[in-house]
Amino acid sequence: MRNVPLAARGNRSGAAALQHRVDTSQPFRTRDGDAPSRGTLAGPRFRPLFRGTHVASPVDDDLLVRARAAGLLVDDAVVGGYAAAAIHGADCAPRHAPVDLVVGRRRIRSRTGLLVRQDELHDDEIVLVDDLRVTTPIRTAFDLVRRLGLVEGVVALDALARVGEFEPGDLLEYVGGRPRTRGRRRLAPAVAAADPRAESPPETRLRLQLIANGLPRPELQYAVPAVPAGWIPHVDMAWPEHRVAVEYQGDQHRTDPVQWRRDQERWALLAAAGWLVIPATWADVHRRSATFAARVQAALAARA
After folding, report:
1. How far apart are CA 168 and CA 125, in angstroms?
2. Residue 69 belongs to a domain
3. Domain extent at residue 228
4. Among 112-126, 164-178, 235-249, which is the least confidently predicted range?
5. What pLDDT does 202 receive?
6. Are 248 and 280 in contact (CB under 8 A)?
7. How many domains does the chain contain in total?
8. What is the Cα–Cα distance from 292 to 75, expressed in whole angstroms?
9. What one-character-per-residue DSSP string does 88-153 give?
């Protein structure tokens, strides 16, 4: 996300000049002297975010936009939680996740879409991203894992460890200086189950479900050797000793003709090399995980 700073402020000199003094494609404060008038803000060209903040109506209502709006509410506040993960590029947040705003000891109430936390952060737990104060990837993982269930905690840890380039086990050292932190007992199980090689939340959820249903832990992003091609194919999950692979197929694999053709070519090459690729869909992850796990288990048994 790129922040476009406001132009220098001064006295208004007409509507044309006003339009160039605030970048309405980014959230802005209504009370700022260079913001559009209240009458203009009440029209269809703008929409409110949190109290006292607006953005141009065509701008997507996503977590990144809401995070930047939240950062305008309290001076020196820090964006954390799922919003911080999204800012760092970690794909793990639900679509309508609230924005965490860390305000220290100040007494500010949470409101719809905004979760205010009175945590006190050290300087090395804060990073500036496009002029927005955000918790670091490892601090963000530390906060999310402590308050989420195991599966979603691992989803967040996988994503943040990948983009933040830290090892999941670093969380255990991180909590060492915070022995009385709430939720700390959730860290060790999440660290044990994490693997930042997973490339998407569905892959993490699928992996955890397969393991929970009794399958051995797979290799992730496995480079399949000895395939007669000019490139080395990779599979999402693999049990190399059985030559069985599982690949998560999101909607883009079905709707994008180029992606579909690549998948077919890759699977044909793998089949010629003796590999069985089992595709998994959204329904296999969310509705029939036990049935899908039994299918993979049967394939492993047949090739034992």
Report:
1. 17
2. no
3. 201-302
4. 164-178
5. 94
6. yes
7. 1
8. 50
9. TT-----TTPPEEEE-TT-----BTTEEEE-----GGGEEEETTEEEE-HHHHHHHHHHHS-HHHH
More confident position, 252 or 78: 78
Say if 151 falls within a structural domain: no
Establish if 284 belongs to a structural domain.
yes
Q: How far is it, in rounded angstroms, from Cα 155 to Cα 190?
A: 9
Residue 55 tokens read as 């953005």
Tokens standing for residue 238:
């693999």
Residue given tokens 């060790």 in the structure block: 188
Q: Cite the DSSP H helix spans in 91-214.
A: 137-147, 150-164, 170-174, 187-193, 201-212
The DSSP bridge pattern shows strands 219-223 and 234-239 to be antiparallel
79, two tokens: 């964006």
- Beta-bridge mates of residue 94: none
CA distance 102 to 94: 20
Task: Tell which phi-psi region holds residue 58, choosing left (phi > 0), alpha (psi between -120 and 50) or beta.
Answer: alpha
Angle between helix 289-302 and 201-212 (nearest 10): 70
**Which pLDDT belongs to residue 188?**
94
Q: What is the pLDDT of residue 263?
A: 81
pTM: 0.84
Residue 98, in any domain of the structure: no
Band the pLDDT of 179: cuts 50, 70, 90. Answer: low
CATH of the domain at 214: 3.40.960.10
- Which residue, chain included where needed, has tokens 């703008």? 46
pLDDT in tens, 184-234: 899 999 999 999 999 999 999 999 999 999 999 999 999 988 776 667 788
- ∠ CA 203-207-213, rounded to 5°: 145
